[in-house]
Design brief:
Layout lengths: L3 E3 L5 E3 L1 H12 L8 H20 L18 E3 L7 E4 L4 E8 L4 E9 L8 E6 L6 E7 H4 L2 E4 L2 E5 L4 E6 L3 E2 L7 E3 L6 E8 L4 E8 L5 E7 L6 E3 L5 E4 L7 E3 L4 E9 L7 E7 L12 E3 L7 E7 L7 E6 L4 E10 L9 E6 L7 E6 L11 E10 L5 E6 L3 E2 L7 E5 L5 E8 L5 E8 L4 E6 L12 E2 L9 E5 L2 E6 L5 E9 L5 E9 L4 E2 L6 E2 L11 E7 L3 E9 L6 E9 L13 E5 L10 E7 L8 E9 L9 E6 L3 E2 L7 E5 L5 E8 L5 E8 L3 E7 L16 E3 L5 E5 L3 E3 L5 E9 L9 E9 L15 E6 L8 E7 L3 E8 L5 E10 L2 E7 L12 E9 L2 E10 L1
Parallel strand pairs: 12-14, 30-32, 40-42, 49-51
Antiparallel strand pairs: 1-2, 3-11, 4-9, 5-8, 5-11, 6-7, 6-9, 6-10, 8-17, 13-21, 14-20, 15-19, 15-21, 16-18, 16-20, 22-29, 23-28, 24-27, 24-29, 25-26, 25-28, 27-35, 31-39, 32-38, 33-37, 33-39, 34-36, 34-38, 41-48, 42-47, 43-46, 43-48, 44-45, 44-47, 46-54, 50-58, 51-57, 52-56, 52-58, 53-55, ...
Helix pairs in contact: 1-2
């Protein structure tokens, strides 16, 4: 017998005989386990039909069931209870029940059959889930629209229940788009989403409290279109790591049902992200972030190819926008975000520029690995922005050459790596061209003593940079690293204007003093280019001075840098930390292989000294040899115009001699220069005005190198020189040796004005000066200190060692104008002989220092 008939609408009709057959089948469950789920659903349908039939009123009576309002929970206490609802759109819909006491409830869905009385409903499915929160899901695209009924039944325990109906009117976008819900007692939300066959999707669910929400995914279509949560494809628990992956088997509409497990007022957020191969981030190239509705997360990928600090930064399109950044490690050959491990997030929405710094030491990123960077939009406008990746390949060596970086108007970030030692203070120099502002951020290396080890660093929270400096023009500041390791120096351009940078790091360490006229051997076998030696010199009066370096190997060249700052009379300031870079020699040197800096010190007030610091290091790209020797010459001689020829001995230590001389512009001068026993050159230097300076970054014009604009003459013999303008000139004699060895020699030097066709020049005017000490070197005997006075005056002498300490004095007495000399027995104040070494004679006239010279004791 046919137990079912169909009405005109094709809806199944259930007869009494069918009920009897169902009961018979229910009693036959032990026939096989594979049939039990289906049998349970049929039995559930029977239970609801039996309950409804028993409660059916007499013919002609109109039944009235409470109506469920979309997203509005209603409380029920009786058992059974039948609320009704109307589905008007071809969307997913769901009904849920939540027990208020200790009872478990069951819920089903039923249809209204037109030929029957209004009180008669036909069961479609029952959840058959004895749980605190249960639901059934309907695909009304398959079943059609109209009035529906939700019979509920208390299966055990006592207490009322809350029932909620959701029409599924919302649609979740794929791309992804963040969706959020917040309801005072929301038990269920139903979303529609269209997925593509063969594409995998990662579904994220966040809640304020772990486990306060659960998300279930269902696939629609066909006769099997009603679902309980036991039939869900996946289940997602909020605020837990490891979101599941859903792979769409067919292109179809899927339902995402969110259940509030607590019943309290808590917001939730979810997103569906397709697993795709994102575009690559090009190093130092700013790329646009596609705009999207809501809070999209746009993925990019990059590969770590160096041991530097890889950095991701994003710039918003306008003020008020912001972004959050996340980084994921690609663990296989899959697609983002399905085959990746979450690494870090900036943890905050940055106001304009947000960034992540990867510390390779923390194993957050590793060389050769592929990573994904996700940029999540926030803020008021959610417009597009720009993102940039820096591989961190630029290294800044302490006491090394300054790095220069040029970027266009899309430059967002540039990252440098520098190795620092805990407690060793350094001086950081940053210069920026252009009017646009920028920032420098310093991030510490991986450190287990800090929250999360600071392996990743952003702009807020536990990952704050140690130091942030707003950049305008030239910026010099000191930094004391708290731990040893590789630090990240991150430069950001805060605007869209063109920008360039200059960055250097110098150590704040004690300096080695360069004594006047005494060479100092530098470390040989320097292994790293730009790792140099630091020295210090003191200037107590104005005049020309020079620093030179002679390499030990013919293939090696050196670079000399000069730093300067007021010392307040001390001169003990650490190198680089209380000084600014003033100038440097050519890093390719000169043909003689002796490179140097020349300076004309401007007059300073009495008793005020200026500290000049010098650093030398091997030039880049040249083979390294056996080190070098540096010498400082502090203009200790004044050469008067019109002097007769003066002979000067060359000791084994001399690389150069420096004089000051005043010349008249346009006046020809006969320059007499002759060497004996060695090959040398005479250079004449002139201070350069700022208008003709070739300095690039505020270096003063008085610092000059050989071959620069301040060099006006170079000769190896007698010549005629006409100065271009009146002023003080520097005369420098260099010993052009082919190797570092002991060479003795002498030279004569004189400068005389010439008058063409008038015969010999007039005799020079009388001057006040120190002439020489003879004999020199002295060997245990005394010496004669010769001098010349322009007028009668008291004269005294001081003899100093190379450390600048006075070891002997010649008492003051008055001498007549003209040539003079005084005998000195070369003894110290205690009567002892002067120890062997290099000394300096300083002449005072009426208490003022007027000159001096060198003295060698054997």
């Amino acid at each position: 017998m046919n137990c079912q008939t169909r009405d005109r609408a094709g809806v199944p009709q259930v007869s009494v005989q069918s009920v009897q057959n169902v009961r018979t089948v229910h009693r036959s469950e032990e026939a096989g386990p594979s049939r039990r789920p289906a049998l349970r659903r049929v039995a559930a349908a029977l239970a609801f039909v039996t309950a409804i039939g028993a409660a059916a009123p007499a013919a002609g009576q109109v039944c009235s069931y409470p109506t469920l309002v979309d997203d509005t929970p209603q409380a029920f206490a009786t058992n059974p209870t039948i609320p009704r609802f109307a589905q008007s759109g071809a969307r997913w819909a769901a009904v849920a029940v939540k027990s208020a006491g200790t009872a478990n409830w069951d819920i089903g869905l039923s249809l209204n059959s037109a030929p029957f009385a209004a009180c008669i409903t036909l069961p479609v499915v029952a959840s058959q889930q004895a749980s605190g929160v249960d639901f059934v899901l309907g695909d009304f695209a398959a079943e059609g629209t109209g009035t529906r009924y939700a019979p509920i039944s208390r299966t055990s325990g006592t207490g009322s229940a809350t029932v909620e109906w959701d029409s599924g009117s919302r649609t979740a976008g794929v791309g992804p788009v963040f969706n959020q819900g917040q309801s005072p007692a929301g038990l269920i939300d139903c979303w529609n989403v269209d997925l593509v066959a063969g594409t995998s999707y990662k579904i994220w669910l966040w809640g304020d409290v772990p486990g306060d929400f659960r998300l279930y995914a269902f696939k629609g279509g066909g006769l099997d279109s009603w679902r309980s949560r036991a039939d869900a494809l996946i289940e997602v628990v909020s605020s837990f790591s490891g979101p599941p992956i859903l792979t769409a088997t067919t292109t179809d509409r899927y339902a995402l049902v969110v259940v509030n497990e607590t019943g309290t007022t808590l917001p939730y957020y979810f997103t569906v992200q397709p697993c795709v191969d994102p575009p690559d981030l090009a190093a130092h190239v700013s790329q646009p972030i596609p705009a999207g509705a809501g809070h999209p997360e746009t993925p990019f990928q990059f590969e770590v190819g160096s041991t530097g600090f890889p950095t991701i930064a994003v710039r918003t399109a306008q003020a008020g926008d912001n972004f959050d950044l996340g980084v994921y490690r690609r663990v296989g050959g899959g697609f983002y975000p399905c085959d990746g491990a979450y690494q870090a997030s900036s943890g905050d929405y940055g106001p304009r520029v947000d960034l992540l710094v990867g510390d390779r030491v923390s194993v957050a990123v590793s060389t050769g690995g592929t990573y994904w960077a996700g940029a999540q939009q926030g803020g008021l406008h959610a417009l597009d922005g720009r993102i940039e990746y820096s591989p961190g390949t630029d290294a800044v060596a302490v006491d090394g050459a300054t790095q220069y970086v040029v970027g266009g108007n899309d430059l967002v970030v540039r990252t440098f790596r520098t190795d620092l030692i805990a407690g060793t203070e350094v001086r950081i120099h940053v210069a920026k061209c252009g009017p646009s502002p920028g920032r420098l951020r310093i991030f510490r290396p991986f450190d287990m003593s800090q929250p999360f080890g600071n392996g990743w660093s952003g702009l807020s929270g536990d990952h704050l940079p140690l130091t942030t400096v707003d950049l305008t023009g030239v910026n010099d500041f000191n930094f004391n690293p708290p731990v040893s390791g590789a630090y990240a120096l991150v430069l950001t351009n805060e605007t869209a204007e063109n920008v360039c940078w200059e960055l250097g790091v110098s150590s704040c360490r004690a300096r080695t003093e360069l004594a006047d006229g005494v060479p100092l051997t530098m470390a040989s076998g320097v292994a790293v280019p730009y790792e140099g030696e630091a020295f210090a010199t003191l200037h107590g009066r104005f005049g020309w001075s020079a620093v030179a370096v002679l390499p030990a190997a013919i293939t090696e060249d050196w670079v000399i840098e000069a730093w300067d700052a007021p010392s307040g009379g001390g001169g003990g300031a650490p190198f680089g930390c209380n000084a600014g870079l003033l100038g440097a020699s050519n890093d390719v040197g000169i043909s003689s292989r002796i490179d140097f800096l020349a300076r004309y010190d401007l007059p300073v007030p009495p008793f005020q000294e200026w500290v000049e610091t010098v650093r030398v290091y091997p030039a880049a790209g040249l083979s390294l040899g056996g080190g070098g020797q540096a010498e400082f010459e502090m203009h200790n001689t004044t050469l008067a115009v019109g002097d007769f020829v003066n002979a000067f001995p060359l000791s084994p230590f001399d690389y150069m001699e420096v004089w000051n001389i005043e010349l008249v512009g346009g006046q020809p001068y006969a320059v007499h220069f002759q060497t004996v026993g060695f090959t040398g050159d005479l250079f004449i230097m002139k201070s350069v005005l700022a208008s003709t300076s070739t300095c690039t970054f505020d270096c003063p014009p008085e610092y000059l190198a050989l071959g620069g604009p301040g060099q006006v003459l170079r000769t190896s013999g007698p010549t005629v020189f006409t100065p271009p303008e009146s002023g003080v000139y520097g005369l420098i004699v260099l010993h052009q040796r082919s190797a570092v060895n002991t060479v003795y020699g002498s030279f004569s030097l004189a400068v005389n004005p010439t008058i063409v066709g008038v015969g010999p020049p007039p005799p020079p005017p009388a001057v006040t000066r120190f002439r020489a000490a003879a004999p020199n070197p002295l060997r245990g005997t005394g010496t004669q200190l010769a001098f010349e006075l322009a007028k009668e005056a008291p004269v005294s002498f001081e003899i100093m060692n190379i450390a600048g300490r006075v070891v002997a004095r010649v008492p003051e007495r008055t001498y007549a104008a003209g040539p003079g000399q005084v005998a000195w027995d070369a003894r110290t104040p205690d009567g002892g002989r002067l120890p062997p070494g290099l000394y300096f004679v300083r002449m005072r006239v009426a208490g003022a220092i007027v000159g001096g010279g060198k003295l060698i004791a054997m």
